[in-house]
Write a structure and sequence with these properties.
mainly alpha; 434 Repressor (Amino-terminal Domain); 10 helices; 3% strand; transmembrane helix; transmembrane; DNA binding; DNA-binding
């Protein structure tokens, strides 16, 4: 079955645009797009979204079949059927992408709800410690607490649920997003292991939020050898969760 060739489609879009004496910006404005989007089409670096195919074909005085085949030539019935199949596959792909996006959004909101609950427990525990006159402003407690809150905000509200496609095309071991900076030696981030990494990291943050006040109450107030132990536990646990997520993803895709 014939495949859609983005370069042929782009060449045809450019040809028809010039025939109608339109600039890239003028064509883009008709569909509330940027001229860079039209430029990507014409260079064969992308295809119009499914919902734009019909209005774009009408604007360029083409049929959808001609647009997707990248040719103004007469399109026979076989080619029409071929395009219909391609269009059906494109629509199915678009629907699947939207479904996955909705699933990721629902999962994100679910864990944000868990975070609110964990923060509520964390606040109640700290209130109890305060009433028991436990010194909460010592460095060996507030530093890991601030670290946890920063990671909680980052992993639950800032960090994206999926990675750009270039992470799948190259071995990239670092990630930057807002206040978050991650660089894991020996691990390449990609869209296969990213959901596992997020899951394990979020679970670890939730657990640490609930456990850290209790740990400090029983162990952290001791002078000397326990100083900075809670900070070390937080840093090590978060680091291990990242590697654990990547390892779990690797095992899952080997099965």
């Amino acid at each position: 079955m014939e495949q859609i060739d983005p370069k042929k489609v782009g060449t045809l879009i450019r040809q028809c645009r010039l025939d109608k004496q339109l600039t890239q910006k003028q064509l883009a404005d008709k569909f509330f797009l940027s001229d860079s989007t039209v430029s990507k089409w014409e260079r064969g670096l992308g295809l119009p979204d499914v919902e734009l195919l019909l209005p774009l074909a009408d604007e360029l005085e083409l049929t959808v079949s001609q647009l997707l085949l990248g040719s103004k030539d007469h399109v026979d019935q076989y080619e029409v059927q071929t395009v219909d199949q391609l269009l059906g596959q494109t629509i199915e792909l678009k629907v699947n992408q939207q479904a996955r996006a909705q699933e990721r959004l629902a999962r994100r909101r679910q864990y944000q709800g868990y975070l609110v609950l964990a923060l509520g427990i964390w606040l109640l525990e700290n209130l109890y410690l305060y009433l028991k006159q436990v010194p909460l402003w010592q460095e060996d407690y507030w530093i890991p607490s601030v670290l946890l809150l920063i990671f909680a905000i980052g992993f639950f509200f800032i960090i994206h649920e999926s990675l750009p496609t270039y992470y799948d095309e190259h071995a990239i071991s670092f990630y930057t997003d807002g206040i978050l900076r991650m660089n894991l030696r020996g691990i390449s981030f990609n869209n296969q292991n990213w959901p596992y990494i997020l899951l394990r990291s979020r679970q670890t943050i939730l657990g640490l939020l609930i456990v850290s006040p209790l740990f400090y109450y029983f162990f952290g107030q001791s002078a000397g050898k326990w100083n900075w132990l809670l900070t070390a536990i937080v840093v090590i646990a978060l680091s291990v969760s990242l590697y654990l997520g990547a390892y779990q993803a690797k095992k899952a895709h080997q099965e």
